[in-house]
Design brief:
With 70 residues, this protein is of the alpha+beta class. 34% of the residues lie in helices and 39% in strands. The protein has a single domain, classed as Alpha-Beta Plaits. The longest helix is centred in the N-terminal third of the chain and has 12 residues. The chain starts with a strand and ends with a strand.
């Protein structure tokens, strides 16, 4: 497992937070550490998960502006 921080664009309210949380929860193998406005701190099993996370968030109507591995 590796830590990942995503900077997410387009989030402005509680509904947005819930939509992004639901999108992330739908990606297998992802452990959510924290999700807040504009940012998600996660643990992922491998690098291939990043593309699935990005697609899930974009399909929910938001954008991924930055990815920091840690």
């Amino acid at each position: 497992m590796q830590n990942l921080e995503l900077t997410i664009t387009g989030m402005s309210c509680g509904h947005c937070l819930n939509a992004v949380s639901k999108a992330i929860a739908g990606v297998d193998g992802v452990e959510v550490k924290e999700i807040r406005m504009g940012r998600a701190d996660l643990r992922i099993p491998d690098d291939s998960t990043v593309a699935r996370l990005t697609a899930a968030i974009e399909n929910a109507g938001y954008g991924v502006e930055g990815i920091t591995r840690g």
